[in-house]
Design goal:
The chain is an alpha+beta fold. The protein is built from nine helices and 17 strands. The protein has two domains: about 5-70 and about 175-345, Zn peptidases (Aminopeptidase, 3-Layer(aba) Sandwich); about 70-160, Peptidase M42, domain 2 (Elongation Factor Tu (Ef-tu), domain 3), CATH 2.40.30.40. The chain has an eight-stranded mixed β-sheet with strand order 1-2-12-3-13-16-14-15, with helices on both faces. Strands 5-4-9-6-7-8 form a six-stranded antiparallel β-sheet. The longest helix has 20 residues, at about 175-195.
Length: about 350
């Protein structure tokens, strides 16, 4: 399993807030870690961190794991000092009321809570539906706009309070697992490849703004211009009540990473990954995802320039887009092993053309 220094890096990354579009703090954590073992680490104009091994090799492989997370942004401060906000990414409104949040200001975080009318004061028809975000507010404990404006500003990003907990020796809980666990896997693959030196160039990218349309992956992939791309994200664990396996497949925590088989998957690359899995006795779970294409950085990497052979490797996740997401470290470790061994199998002469390679 993972060494202590790797787990310390994961905890630090998870305890660093990075609402989509405001990822600099997480980027710094990712950059400083990968600088200790990669040949070159750069940051582009969007904030993607691009760590490279053998950067001058003609055959290039890109790994993408996004370190942005869902959050909010301040839109208005009322006369009584209450703060109104909009969503930044795919927010589940049912999870929002009573959340503790950090407003990320130029002078550091300001703590607050998201409030609404107490249940006692709600009309009967209001009690069984999700409130609109405009019917909630952030309370930072002040009584006026003047007091609030000394602490926060319109436009400041807002993050759910950071949290990290080991539920047992394998399972972790954090609001940032989507997709800091994927960015962590990217970094850990690069750590292993730095020791074993692949025959190809490898670019491990911590991407930004995935939650608002894969924007970081689009520009970083254009810059790297890889022949092969791995998207590493979270996937839906279905080992819970009321999630129909006949619709979403049979995916459980602790049984290995998901290898996606969909339109985002290059067929020769998929076949190689499965062969590597068998040869190295790495448990995997096959997933078709909840849609034919899209939902992760993988789809936009696939469509870059004249096409990229892509694969999506997912870490099973419970309670996605909430403050209490759960993943299993065994699945993350399996993903690291699977991707590492697959890349080490490349000679640099592969074309990954379906039906021809």
């Amino acid at each position: 399993m993972f060494q202590k220094k790797s787990l310390a890096f994961l905890e630090k990354l998870l305890l660093t807030s990075s609402p989509t579009g405001f990822e600099s703090a997480a980027a710094k954590v990712f950059r400083e870690e990968t600088e200790t073992f990669c040949d070159r680490v750069e940051t582009d104009v969007l904030g993607n961190t691009i760590a490279a091994i053998n950067p001058d090799a003609p055959f290039r492989v890109m790994l993408a794991g996004h370190y942005d997370e869902i959050g909010f942004q301040i839109t208005y401060i009322s006369d009584d000092g209450l703060i109104y906000f909009r969503a930044n990414g795919g927010i589940d409104k049912l999870n929002v009321p009573s959340s503790e949040v950090d407003i990320l200001t130029a002078n550091g975080p300001v703590r607050g809570v998201i409030g609404k009318k107490p249940i006692h004061l709600l009309k009967a028809e209001e009690r069984d539906r999700a409130l609109a975000l405009e019917d909630m507010w952030i309370d930072i404990g002040v009584d006026s706009r003047e007091e609030a404006e000394k602490l926060v500003s319109v436009g400041d990003p807002v993050a759910n309070r950071t949290n990290f907990r080991m539920l047992n020796e394998n399972r972790i809980c954090s609001k940032g697992l989507d997709d800091k666990i994927g960015a962590f896997v990217v970094a850990e693959v690069m750590r292993k490849l730095a020791e074993r030196r692949p025959a190809v160039g490898v670019f491990g990218v911590g991407t930004v703004q995935e939650e608002v349309g894969y924007r970081g992956a689009k520009v970083s992939c254009f810059g790297v211009a890889p022949q092969v791309g791995f998207g590493i994200d979270v996937g839906f664990a279905t080992d819970l009540p009321d999630i129909p396996k006949k619709v979403f497949g049979d995916v459980a925590l602790g049984k290995g990473p998901e290898v996606n088989r969909s339109c985002d998957s290059n067929l020769p690359l998929y076949d190689r990954i499965m062969r590597i899995s068998r040869e190295n006795k790495i448990p995997v779970q096959i997933s078709t995802g909840h849609r034919a294409t899209g939902g992760t950085d993988t789809c936009c990497m696939q469509m870059n320039r004249d096409g990229v052979a892509t694969a999506l490797i997912s870490i099973p996740n419970r309670y996605m887009h909430s403050q209490v997401e759960i993943c299993d470290l065994r699945d993350a470790y399996g993903a690291v092993e699977l991707i590492t061994e697959t890349i080490l199998s490349f000679t640099g002469k592969e074309t990954f053309r379906p039906g021809l390679d």
